[in-house]
Automatic annotation (TrEMBL):
<comment type="similarity">
    <text>Belongs to the bacterial ribosomal protein bS1 family.</text>
</comment>
<dbReference type="GO" id="GO:0003735">
    <property type="term" value="F:structural constituent of ribosome"/>
</dbReference>
<dbReference type="Pfam" id="PF00575">
    <property type="entry name" value="S1"/>
</dbReference>
<dbReference type="InterPro" id="IPR050437">
    <property type="entry name" value="Ribos_protein_bS1-like"/>
</dbReference>
<feature type="domain" description="S1 motif">
    <location>
        <begin position="196"/>
        <end position="264"/>
    </location>
</feature>
<feature type="domain" description="S1 motif">
    <location>
        <begin position="281"/>
        <end position="351"/>
    </location>
</feature>
<feature type="domain" description="S1 motif">
    <location>
        <begin position="455"/>
        <end position="523"/>
    </location>
</feature>
<feature type="domain" description="S1 motif">
    <location>
        <begin position="368"/>
        <end position="438"/>
    </location>
</feature>
<feature type="domain" description="S1 motif">
    <location>
        <begin position="109"/>
        <end position="175"/>
    </location>
</feature>
<dbReference type="InterPro" id="IPR000110">
    <property type="entry name" value="Ribosomal_bS1"/>
</dbReference>
<dbReference type="InterPro" id="IPR003029">
    <property type="entry name" value="S1_domain"/>
</dbReference>
<dbReference type="GO" id="GO:0006412">
    <property type="term" value="P:translation"/>
</dbReference>
<comment type="function">
    <text>Binds mRNA; thus facilitating recognition of the initiation point. It is needed to translate mRNA with a short Shine-Dalgarno (SD) purine-rich sequence.</text>
</comment>
<keyword id="KW-0689">Ribosomal protein</keyword>
<dbReference type="GO" id="GO:0003729">
    <property type="term" value="F:mRNA binding"/>
</dbReference>
<keyword id="KW-0694">RNA-binding</keyword>
<dbReference type="InterPro" id="IPR012340">
    <property type="entry name" value="NA-bd_OB-fold"/>
</dbReference>
Amino acid sequence: MANATMEEFEALLSESFEMDTPEEGSVVKGKVIAIEAGQAIIDVGYKMEGRVELKEFANPGEAPEISVGDEVEVYLRAAENARGEAVISREMARREEAWDRLEKAYADDARVEGAIFGRVKGGFTVDLGGAVAFLPGSQVDVRPVRDAGPLMGLKQPFQILKMDRRRGNIVVSRRAILEESRAEQRAEVIANLTEGQTVDGVVKNITEYGAFVDLGGVDGLLHVTDMAWRRVNHPSEILSIGETVKVQVIKINKDTHRISLGMKQLQEDPWDLVAVKYPLSTVHTGRVTNITDYGAFVELEPGVEGLVHVSEMSWTKKNVHPGKIVSTSQEVEVMVLEIDPAKRRVSLGLKQTMRNPWEVFSETHPEGTEVEGEVKNITEFGLFIGLPGEIDGMVHLSDLSWDQRGEEAIQEYRKGDVVKAVVTEVDTDKERISLSIKALGGDKFADAVGGVKRGSIVTVEVTAIEDGGIEVEYEGMKSFIRRSDLSRDRAEQRPERFSVGDKLDVRVTNIDSKTRRLGLSIKAREIAEEKEAVEQYGSSASGASLGDILGAALKRDE
């Protein structure tokens, strides 16, 4: 009997040795046998007990749910510590269990449940039932989230983007879940929309180029150019966030699910009546809405704008920025020059509402009128004089003086000088006014030689003696008689035989109005007199001497 008892004992002993003792680093099942001092004492079998902090049994932000008698899985870190107890961890068991579960979900591309419990640099921490994952800030929502407070501790689904067990890294996304459900919702809403349909929507967001309108789970873009027929500088002028608006679906892109909306399409197009309301050459009052380098836009009525090109802004101000002539919001009178209904363009003129200043000037200042003005500019070809009506007239070099060369005469003038001149020509088409300063006192040359013809005998006064001849003056006009024209007799062709102040009868050989010179000759007068005497008193063949003929002629005159 004793032998049998010993055999049984040996059998039991060997059986106990053969039983698999749990390996360190594995998850084992245990039973809570006591709870004391914030710890749970757990019997993991094999005559091993260990302690686990109660907080390891709680989810983040929740109270621990554990009581004596509960069966739990724990991670066996070491079979025995210095106090002879097993070193166990509930948290590590949960993590191992969670990783197994998450790896399977990641492989199946399945969603996992978790709760955001903390904020870290660049994002948030999420508890996935034992494993901690990182949720980047960009993956929280479809749009940037200013306050993530309401999302904290909330059980919700996440998508695993990346995981690395060796490094203990998991990256998750909440946005992917939202986009997926949003895409389903969008597809459903878009399927019920048709182009041309009128729908109600709520203004969700406003940008510089338009507004995003929520059509019930799907957003459409209402571009700024489709808000009104008139020019809208910024969408906030006519819309505000949260406002309900009636819009028309203009276009649906089935591939990108983008929806274009319009508000003006629900209003009457003012362009339908433009040609009737604004006939060509009619004058209307409008408001300047925009100024550019090439002109100014003028609103004739809401939705109808026309362009006043810079060339049609002023008769006189050329090469000036439109902003120097008109200002934004200014009321102006404009004339309709052209209408292009296809391109929805109206060409307007500002200067056409005022009279052409060159036409006005030609009416008030006919040719020959004397004017006075300030020298505005001096160029190599003449002077520009400011005239009434903000226009300029030009005095050409050749019209500055009778006596001086133009290049010399222009030296006497300075910018700002006030001068008088005579209007010689007005060309309204070329917008050109020609003036003359030298014509102020009339044409001295024309007056002087008015009754003089070629061949006339005139009396001149000697004003200077030179080697080549003599300078003489007739009616204030200077002329020069060359040495060869001083006498018929070569011996008498000496300038020194004349004195300044002598009065001489000379024959006019030439009248040059261009150079304003008289051609004079004593020799020609003598030859003409001889010819005349011969014709009257005899012929050269009759034998009478010249002295006899001249003597007879003199007696007759006496």
